[in-house]
């Protein structure tokens, strides 16, 4: 639709507006679930729903408006051949997607590559070219398909250009999976706990003890004596911990099986240079103490902190300027990706919530983790498409890096995912239960795992070069698509 619509625009403002409208509609329909979080504490945040439903899509639509602007001023869409327009369109669209994943804090959500999340064979090529690479090939193939359909001619070469890359990706994945062999750590058994606590109850202080009791019951249920490591979801410890009260929290967790090491999520407050700092943290409890091992670095705007708070408070009463998650203090970011070492386990990379959506930013380059622990709480978003979109992106990180992922979610979807992105076991959304599984071993480092950011940069530069070539070098004989073809 966008491919055909922009080709016919004769004025810059028409093209930009059409691109923005397309982007707004795309993001409004795919991100509507964001507003679900505002119903949880409706007395405070219900007024924000219209802004969430329209504001976020409107802002993200700027990327599509910028795409349309650049495509229009290249003049290909007015004077170029349909073929050169298809190439330029696909290159520029992929460039914009890469930029969306990196500008400001980045938001690489619902990447084009994820349309293949249920086709595990095609998804495998993420191990070599990453999600942005799959997206670029898919976009190019889709544009060439549109070219074939709209040109109304028998075009063998463009048809092959569409079929060959898709077939090549599938073949690559088929061959890769035919040699799939997963080895396990025989002496490491992980228990992933999904308590499925209703979000309103989860944030209610009066329910804290009951919520903890449910987590402990699941953790100590049948077979607990065999478990070496237990993983709880994000913010599963129902109190914000600090160095002063660490021993109190430790005492409350004593009921968990002492043979297991607990990895869990919690808020954490500490003092730094006479200032109180709050973080969304991951902690580890063993038989003797609790340690904070990681603080989330990719924070969710308005969910975990209010961006531009000082400026907003100049126009709005401070009591209305609050983050959606509980607590008066904004969270502060941690120091980025790290590799953590704990007792009786291979080194792992801790990721909290949507940190797992960032390609090439989930494992430390010079200290490769052997697995990823991703804790999250998608209970904020109810039974919408949001948790499913989130889970799809996590599977791509396993493929890209070649390491297993243990994912614990409060209300789902929890899973143990192997290094090929295949679910060994999972718990569906809103089910209460546990997953007991031996820890899979990683496979040798993938190409993308070794050179991820370099590959993304090289792809971006290649796309820019091809777009520039098509814009400036190729002849511009008119070969228009008729309006009737686009109807």
UniProtKB/TrEMBL annotation:
It is a multi-pass membrane protein. The keyword Acyltransferase applies. The chain crosses the membrane at residues 12-33, 45-73, 85-105, 125-148, 155-175, 457-474. Its EC number is 2.3.1.269. SUPFAM superfamilies: Carbon-nitrogen hydrolase. Keywords: Acyltransferase, Cell membrane, Membrane, Transferase, Transmembrane, Transmembrane helix. It is found in: Cell membrane. Belongs to the CN hydrolase family. Apolipoprotein N-acyltransferase subfamily. Catalyzes the phospholipid dependent N-acylation of the N-terminal cysteine of apolipoprotein, the last step in lipoprotein maturation. This is Apolipoprotein N-acyltransferase. It comes from Candidatus Hydrogenosomobacter endosymbioticus. The gene is lnt.
């Amino acid at each position: 639709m966008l491919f055909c619509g922009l080709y016919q625009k004769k004025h810059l403002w028409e093209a930009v507006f059409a691109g923005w409208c397309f982007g707004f509609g795309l993001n409004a329909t795919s991100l509507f679930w964001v507003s679900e979080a505002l119903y949880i504490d409706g007395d405070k945040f219900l007024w924000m729903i219209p802004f969430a439903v329209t504001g976020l899509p409107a802002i993200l639509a700027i990327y599509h408006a910028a795409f349309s602007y650049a495509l229009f001023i290249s003049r290909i869409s007015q004077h170029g051949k349909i073929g050169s327009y298809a190439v330029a369109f696909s290159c520029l669209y992929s460039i914009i997607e890469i930029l969306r994943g990196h500008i400001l804090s980045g938001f690489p959500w619902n990447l084009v590559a994820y349309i293949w999340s249920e086709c595990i064979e095609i998804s495998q090529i993420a191990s070599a070219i990453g999600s942005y690479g799959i997206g670029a090939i898919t976009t190019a193939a889709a544009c060439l398909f549109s070219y074939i359909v709209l040109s109304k001619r028998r075009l063998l070469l463009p048809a092959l250009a569409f079929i060959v890359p898709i077939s090549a990706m599938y073949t690559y994945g088929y061959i890769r999976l035919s040699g799939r062999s997963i080895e396990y750590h025989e002496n490491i058994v992980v228990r992933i706990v999904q308590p499925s606590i209703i979000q309103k109850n989860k944030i209610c202080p009066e329910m804290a003890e009951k919520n903890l009791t449910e987590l402990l019951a699941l953790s100590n249920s049948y077979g607990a004596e065999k478990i070496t490591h237990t993983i709880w979801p994000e913010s599963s410890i129902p109190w914000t911990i600090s160095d002063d009260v660490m021993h109190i929290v430790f005492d409350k967790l004593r009921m968990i099986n002492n043979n297991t090491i607990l990895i869990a999520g919690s808020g954490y407050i500490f003092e730094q240079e006479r200032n109180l700092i709050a973080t969304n943290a991951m902690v580890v409890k063993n038989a003797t103490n609790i340690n904070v091992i990681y603080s989330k670095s990719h924070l969710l705007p308005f969910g975990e902190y209010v961006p531009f708070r000082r400026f907003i408070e100049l126009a709005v009463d401070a009591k209305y300027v609050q983050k959606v998650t509980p607590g008066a203090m904004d969270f502060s970011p941690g120091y980025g990706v790290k590799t953590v070492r704990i007792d009786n386990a291979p080194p792992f990379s801790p990721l909290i919530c949507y940190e797992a959506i960032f390609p090439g930013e989930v494992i430390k380059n010079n200290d490769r983790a052997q697995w990823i622990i991703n804790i999250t709480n998608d209970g904020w978003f109810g039974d919408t498409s949001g948790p499913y979109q989130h889970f799809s992106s996590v599977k791509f990180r396993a493929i890209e890096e070649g390491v297993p992922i243990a994912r614990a979610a409060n209300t789902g979807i929890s899973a143990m995912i192997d290094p090929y992105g295949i679910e060994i076991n999972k718990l569906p959304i809103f089910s209460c239960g546990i997953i007991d599984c031996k820890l899979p071993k990683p496979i040798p480092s993938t190409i993308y795992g070794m050179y991820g950011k370099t590959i993304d940069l090289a792809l971006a530069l290649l796309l820019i070069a091809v777009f520039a070539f098509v814009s400036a070098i190729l002849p511009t004989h008119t070969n228009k698509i008729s309006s009737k073809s686009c109807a």
